[in-house]
Write a structure and sequence with these properties.
It contains 11 helices and 7 strands. By secondary structure, the protein is of the alpha+beta class. It folds into 2 domains: 159 residues, no CATH class; 99 residues, no CATH class. A hairpin with a 5-residue loop joins strand 4 and strand 5. Helix 5 packs parallel to helix 8.
């Protein structure tokens, strides 16, 4: 099937456009949400994410909608505060356009692990050079970690441990050299969270490596796959869903609907005031009709303003104020 997604992209996308996109596909979002999450909340969080990262307005709309549905399916809110997941712009060099990627954070993996049905708790901690740290694998395995007070020195390792529902425990240790190998495979190895928030990235790496050794749910497998694609700089193909199901709003139709609503409101106002109803710009008045004044232009709402005027100037990489990026 030919790629028809670009035909749906209006010249200017506003928050109002995104709201219409989500509203018209609310049923699909509702179907994707697990029982503990409702579509209305997911849609509100998605709109907030767009306001915090205005560059998302420049992305392919179907990839944005696909990312929201993917977040709903995994039950991870992309709010940038809890750290479960983020929606970030990604340049697709093959399609020559921006797409939305879903980036899953360390707390998101913890949440997915808890929901797997096999795991009771998952924990990961970074180890610094001045910490009291010992571990041993084998039949008499143990893990001992007592963080040092004050300046703990440089990061040297990370450990991750899972307590299974049957009471058994499993843990892994990763020395700095092993974590570095994972960092080097990332397209943002020298930028973004690896540089700004290294400790949470070490924790996330430890949890991912641990989870590969545990019974995985389908949601966890999907999360690991999305993370691998993001790290490799590959498209997550979130905009390749069934377009016969998803609905992309037509900006021209939306303009016509707004014009009809404006005329209806002006007509009601004129009738209440005992005056003549306003004439539609697109219709010619009768020859004997007295001249009428042009109706006042429709006020521009907040959502019709350019993105830079309606949202704080966060970075294009999903930086948010008031929260630490744990991904």
């Amino acid at each position: 099937m030919a790629d028809r997604r670009d035909e749906h992209l209006p010249e200017v996308v506003t928050v109002k456009t995104v709201r219409a996109l989500l509203k018209q596909n609310q049923d699909e979002i509702e179907k994707a949400c697990p029982k503990f999450l409702d579509a209305e909340r997911m849609m509100r969080v998605a709109l907030t994410a767009v306001r915090r990262t205005p560059k998302l307005l420049d992305c392919d709309q179907t990839s944005l909608l696909g990312a929201v549905i993917e977040s709903a399916t995994l039950g991870l809110l992309p709010d940038g505060i809890l750290g479960h997941s983020w929606l970030l712009p990604f340049w697709n060099s093959r399609r020559k356009c921006l797409e939305v990627q879903m980036i899953i954070g360390y707390p998101g993996y913890i949440s997915l692990a808890h929901r797997s049905g096999h795991i009771s708790t998952v924990q990961a901690m970074p180890v610094f050079e001045k910490d009291d740290y010992e571990f041993q694998y084998g039949t008499e395995q143990f893990l001992h970690h007592k963080p040092a007070k004050g300046n703990r020195g440089d990061l040297v390792a990370v450990w991750a441990q899972a307590l299974m529902r049957d009471g058994s425990k499993q843990f892994i240790n990763m020395w700095g050299e092993e974590v570095e190998e994972h960092r080097k495979m990332s397209q943002q190895a020298d930028t973004g969270p690896w540089q700004k928030h290294p400790a949470p990235m070490w924790q996330k790496t430890g949890v991912i490596v641990l989870c590969k050794q545990l019974p995985l749910s389908s949601d966890m497998e999907r999360a690991v796959s999305l993370d691998r694609q993001a790290d490799a700089g590959e498209s997550q193909n979130l905009g390749t869903r069934d377009e016969d199901v998803l609905t992309i709003p037509d900006p021209d139709a939306d303009h016509g609907q707004r014009r009809a609503e404006d005329l209806e409101a002006e007509l009601e106002k004129a009738v209440k005031g005992g005056g003549r109803p306003p004439a539609d710009k697109d219709s010619k008045p009768p020859a004997d009709a007295p001249p009428t004044k042009e109706p006042a232009p429709h006020d521009q709402g907040e959502d019709d303003r350019p993105a830079q005027e309606q949202a704080p100037t966060d970075s294009d990489q999903g930086e948010t104020s008031g929260g630490v990026e744990l991904f």
